[in-house]
Amino acid sequence: MHHLPRPFSIPPWAASGLLAFCLLTAGCLPGAARAAPERAPIQLAVDATDLAHRVLQAQEQLPLPPAPEARQLKLSYPRFLPGAHGPYGDVSRLAGLTITAAGQPLRWQRDTVDTHAFLVDVPAGVDRLDLRLQYIAPTRRSNERVSITRSLLNVEWETVLLYPADTAASTLRVHSRLKLPPGWQQASALRGPHGHAAPAADAQGWWDYGETSLETLVDSPVFAGAVLRRVALDAPGTAAPVTLNLLGDDPAAVAASPAQLEAHRALVRQADRLFGSRPFRHYDFLLALSDEFGGIGLEHHESSENGAEASYFTDDWDRAIRARELLPHEYVHAWNGKFRRPADLWTAHYNQPMRNSLLWVYEGLTQYWGHVLSARAGLSTPEQARDRLAGLAAELQARCGRSWRNLQDTTLDPTVGPGHDPEWEDWQRSSDYYDEGLLLWLDVDTLIQDLSHHQRSLDHFARSFFGSPPTPHADGSIRPSVYDVETLVQALNTVQPHDWAGFFRDRLEGHDGRHLLDGVERSGWRLVWSPEESRYAQNERGGSGPEGDERPQDLAFSLGLRVTSDGKLDQVYWDSPAFRAGLAPGMTLVAVNDRAYKPERLAAAVTANRQGQGQAPLHLLVRDGDLFLHPVIDWQGGLRYPRLERLGSKPDRLAIIYRAR
Q: Per-block average pLDDT, block size 10, for the chain (661 residues)?
């Protein structure tokens, strides 16, 4: 558990991360990550044409320094992936591994403890290994994302390679090529062999990306498909240009209107005005619009992987935000997370564990600015932004798990690893550093405004902390600049003096949530309850979710449950009226007051049982497997949906924060 140190200083793990960073960049890192000696680049060729079986076929030529004696070489399959913040590299999807030298098969065995490591017996004099392996992508939706369909695919390079263990990724060079189906186009931050956009495929369908460091390659995924539309978001000739790459199952999915594209151009302009500089050579939004291809939002330094519904441009654009805060969030990561990076989240290679103590900055501050930039760019209206803020404020206020698990502890959630979806999310908590981080940084922003008598805001911190020109590597790629808690606090004090160390300690380590809504109220609004959902919530709930799942009927703040149209209890809140009646997630609501469940019937029954109305409690029929239950809920508070209400005694700082610069 990583609590903030008292007093704030560089903790031992952060200091060691800074030391590793300095030693690595000086070329003298001992032990944990070795700088690779000068040698020929790794050759990596990936065939992505087997769409029927969702399999990527990879061939890798791995140069070795010759040795006069036989030796054992350790190769690693990437495990701790940037942006995932934890051990999300899935080695179980690696298959068909063969390793040869000069045409002769070599014996290999998996490390019995570190299953992402492969030990290879290399004969004397061998100077190159030839590897063949496959990445077996998911073929159907389950808990895993579909990354290959008949019309779209996503190549993440870390899934199709092995590299010498304990070697700094920035020092390994890789020449990569990718074979796509006939007629397909690709989009990536990778450029061709001479630094230009990747040329058209050769006669065999191979795209040549030239030579990069392994670090840059893993940070530069590829989206590809038969339907690709490139939209420049800058004027011609702009330095560090930004491109929106739209891919879809058919041309209709990428047929954005001029007004919709202008909102994305405005996002780029508003980020420029917030940060003051661009910490990349070029930037590519990779946006796949499909109901088959899996949803994703993953940051990279010069691109982002984004997957949304096919209706992104066509469904309720003026009425619902849906996925439109996704691109702003990932774009902000180019500054916050990729260029400026917490020291304990920087690692030399992909099998060195990351530490997540500053995810409330990396993700929480990014969540805040993604929300704000959406409104400033016109991707959402101020009303929609306020309604979204009301919803997440209410959701976080209902996090009763705060009584035992504070916000700082939730930053360890990715380290627990994949596959641990909580049954009782509000009690167990999970990645709350995103949305509670948003409220935390709204608190910071409004407090700076208060203390400075409206002369300064968090925008000033954005420019001073994230806007400094980046330092490039010799190959032109951008070197991350690391920081720790102490550096962050000092930077905030430069913008506005305050006890920021104590401020963060109270909010990160506390268990009572008493400061949770300080930023909302300081901004001139307060959380209230309405018997009707906001237009924003109605429209957000009106479509399908990011993976095609229906959005359930929301009675979270009255009965304490969310239920799908077929009666499945999607979520039950800990210690809520539904919980106390014995309900749990996964049960099925069959009937309400002796009539078959319908959303409107349940809502009407809740309304009829309001305090003072003299109506009977709710009599439910619930199925739990083969067992039928008859719980009774006597909730008399009626329907409750969150809204923000103006506090007339205070200035409307949300209007100022959301206003375009």
A: 34 37 37 60 98 97 93 97 94 98 96 97 96 94 86 98 97 97 96 73 93 96 98 95 97 96 98 97 97 95 96 83 94 97 96 96 98 98 96 97 97 83 92 97 98 97 92 82 97 98 97 96 97 89 49 94 95 97 97 96 93 81 97 95 94 97 96
Minimal CA–CA distance to 588: which of 559, 626, 624, 555?
624
- Separation CA 358–CA 401 (nearest Å): 20
Q: Please, where are the H alpha helices in 467-543? A: 485-495, 500-509, 518-522, 535-540
CB-based contacts of 643, cutoff 8 Å, min separation 6: 387, 390, 527, 528, 529, 530, 534
Is the bond preceding 414 in cis, omega lying within 30 degrees of 0? no
- How many Cβ atoms sit within 10 Å of the Cβ of residue 179? 18
CB-CB contact of 188 with 178 (8 Å)? no
The neighbour count for residue 306, using CB atoms within 10 Å, is: 25
Query: The CATH number of 38-265+276-321 is which of 3.40.50.1010, 2.60.40.3650, 1.10.10.10, 3.40.50.10070?
Result: 2.60.40.3650
**Residues near 30 by Cβ (< 8 Å), separated by ≥ 6?**
23
Residue bearing tokens 């304490």: 560
What residue segments make up the domains of the chain, in order of their start?
A: 38-265+276-321, 558-639
Q: Alpha-carbon distance 347 to 12, whole Å?
A: 15
Using only C-alpha atoms, what is the Rg of the chain? Answer: 26
The pTM (predicted TM-score) of the whole model is 0.92
Tell me the backbone φ, ψ of residue 296, rounded to 5 degrees.
-160, 155
- Structural element, H or E, at residue 274: helix 258-275
What CATH architecture is 558-639?
Roll (2.30)
3-state secondary structure of 513: coil
Count of C-beta atoms within a 10 Å radius of residue 433: 29
Choose among 230, 221, 226, 186: nearest CA to 206.
Answer: 186
- DSSP SS3 for 615: coil
Q: Which amino acid is at 361?
A: V
Torsion angle, alpha carbons of 368, 373, 379, 380, to 10: 50
